[in-house]
Amino acid sequence: AELAPVTVFNSYKRNTGEESQSITVKPDRTTQYTLTVTNQYGCEQMALTYVNVNPLPEFSLKITDTDCATPTGKIELVYVSVDDYTVTINGQRGQALVNLGEGDYTITVIDNKTGCESKPQNAHIYVQNVPVLTLMTSPSATLTCDYEKIEIIAFPDGGEAPYTYSIDGTN
Fold it and tell me: What does the pLDDT look like over 104-152, one tens digit per residue?
């Protein structure tokens, strides 16, 4: 905020110690500023003003990871310090915080009453429940004999049953 009197005076004294006609301030909390001016006849006048500083919104997140089949990840705001707010995700306002895939997300909260924007919080959604598949052939695939039928046995681990199997794109 720039603080400057409308009329030009001979001298200026501020509670900040500065003696210039105008000053630029950036307080971190609501602050009172005083200015004493003196005209060419030695008459003094004092005035004061307040610079109000609104607090930045604060919030905390709960992250739910996605599964491997479809984007099911979500980011929930479990605490927000203001009542009327807008959420941004990766700089986009109003974007949903659900059905998210694996990746990095930056979340901010904007106080709709003051326009103040929170410090950003970073979140990463991971893919969970990725199945691991082990295959075994019977008889052993390293045999050089000409077999009419070779059985491929799958051993899945992780993920969620039931499993769907496909060899060369066919079930």
Answer: 999 999 999 999 999 999 999 998 877 777 887 776 666 656 666 777 7
* Each residue's pLDDT tens digit, 47-89: 999 999 999 999 999 999 988 778 889 999 989 999 999 999 9
What gap in Å lies between CA 133 and CA 140, rounded to an integer? 18
- Concatenating the DSSP letter of every residue in 131-167 gives -EEEEEEES-TT--S--S--EEEEEEESS-SSP---B
Report how far residue 59's alpha carbon sits from residue 32's, in angstroms, rounded to the nearest whole number.
Answer: 29
Q: Are strands 127-128 and 66-67 parallel, antiparallel or unpaired?
A: parallel
Q: Do 22 and 3 touch, CB atoms closer than 8 A?
A: yes
Q: For residues 49-74, b (16+ Cβ closer than 10 Å) or e, as one string?
A: eeeeeeeebebeeebeebeeeebbbb
Bridge partners of residue 123, in order along the sequence = 105
- Sheet containing strand 103-111, edge to edge, reads 92-93, 85-89, 103-111, 121-125
